[in-house]
Write a structure and sequence with these properties.
By secondary structure, this protein is of the alpha/beta class. The protein has 9 helices and 11 strands. Helix 4 crosses helix 7 (about 205-220).
Amino acid sequence: MMTMTTPATSNAYYYISPSTDPYYNIALEDYLYRQLRPLDTIYMLWVNRPSVFMGRYQWAEAELDLDYLEEHDIALLRRTSGGGTVYHDLGNLNFTAIKNDHSGQGFDLKAFPTPIQRALAGRGVVVERSPRGDLRLDGYKVGGAAEAVNRSRMLYHICLLFDANLEELERILTVSPEVEARSRVASVRSQVTNLRPALPDGYTITDLQEDILAALREEHTGLFPLEFNASVEEYIRTQRAEHFEHADWIHSPIGRAKTPTI
């Protein structure tokens, strides 16, 4: 079994989203990143209904089957971060880490997924970070990560394949090579697998959330839940309508889509 220890440092905050609406969750993540700068470290755990998230610089037609998404009412979103296209459903757990850098030394990307690695190691499952930054189980991809940075504040998120519909994932993210070649930032295709078969019987996505929170408590002096007021809900409603659900953001030519300012 792999063991990792990290000295406890500073306070941090976390939020487990009760919603499975992908537009709500991405707007909430945006709020944590852009509006809560005084909080140096924030974590978010969230699960979405079936949806597809593109990277900031990708072109939808080159990454997925748009007709299939429309026929099956699968949401399409564009992230503010870079990286490739990923499929979400109720069998995926999304982990977000938002941190400020006061040192001027930049961020250690290898450190961001370590709470996940420690949580899984505690259940006898060893996952390794590949040179590309994703997480691998026995060589198969189980988590794809992406990040964004603005004024010494980083947004890092990773989509973990816990018990996702891998057939649906493959169906949606398969396009012809001729079309894919036209993408400015094409996704790197990898063989994938779910974490669930490697974990103990009866282990749930909620158990994984709790194990990740336990690993985070080892990293911080204090880990506190966030509570929100009505103004946050108003921010989410505005951002999802004017930005994340808006066709100009999802389908705009690369580089021309408007990004919210911090």
